[in-house]
Amino acid sequence: MPAFGWVVVLGAGVGFIAGMFGVGGNFLMVPLLSVVFGVPVPIAAGTGVCQMIGTALVSFLRHRRLGQGEIRFDLLMLAGSVIGADAGVRLLGALEASTRHVAGVALVRVVVDSVYVVFLLSAAVIFWIGAARRPTSAPLARVRFGPTVTLPAVGLSVSALLVSWIGFGLGFLSGLLGIGGGVALMPVLVYGFGFPMRHAAGTGIFMLLCTAFYSTFVHALNGRVELALAMALLLGATPAAQLGALATARLPGPTLRRIFAGVVLLTSIAVAWDLLRRMHA
């Protein structure tokens, strides 16, 4: 296990970001555990999603107190997210069992890191380009596929089936990458459905919490959870997540979007650099 103090510091930094943007934080936690501390990717994924239970719970309670978020959206995503999480965990297991290597790097690392870089870069570009204006088109809010559900907190009516499929995709990312999927959900909510940034930050937390419980259980069965490491991360992340959630209520939407884009971009660059370094070692 890495040095206890540095692990707590890592947990605090990621917890603050998680609370601020309503994400699980594992889009930062997993690559940093792997790149900085040398934790194997499958262990980092399993342990990261385990500690996410604490940060997601704290963020959920804080955002509820602030009146930020739309719980109905969470509930619509929930069933799909659990099914998706199971599929992602199974794929990770298959990659982990493979003996194939790409340029001397294990296949599981190449696939996981590549997926990380692609979707993190996409999220960063979307948020940076749109940081100066509040989204108004909301194309996904106009989709009428199957029954619709009204979301009074944000004044929208959405397709229940579409939201369920979004939940499946986020759950798949959770199982495969050990992340909550919140970093992928944010651009969908803000630019797909037109959620205000604060409500987007408070939406998805309950779904992430439930997905984290399920993914942790499955990863633990496969020996991918280091409980001592997860507890050290939680020690720093739990109080910091509350401070991050409070910061959301005090910062303007464009500023939040720029900060989010910058954090995601730096993370994607770090993951890409580490993968390329290993492939050319």
Q: What is the total number of structural domains?
A: 1
Treating each run of at least 4 consecutive H or I residues as one helix, how many helices?
11
Largest sheet: 2 strands, antiparallel
Determine Rg (CA atoms, Å).
18 Å
What shape does the CA trace take? globular
Structure description:
By secondary structure, the protein is mainly alpha-helical. It has one domain. The chain has helices spanning 4-21, 26-35, 41-65, 71-97, 107-129, 160-177, 182-192, 197-202, 205-221, 227-248, 253-279; strands at 101-102, 105-106, 148-151, 156-159. The protein has a two-stranded antiparallel sheet with strand order 1-2. The longest helix is centred in the first third of the chain and has 27 residues, at 71-97. It starts with a helix and ends with a helix.
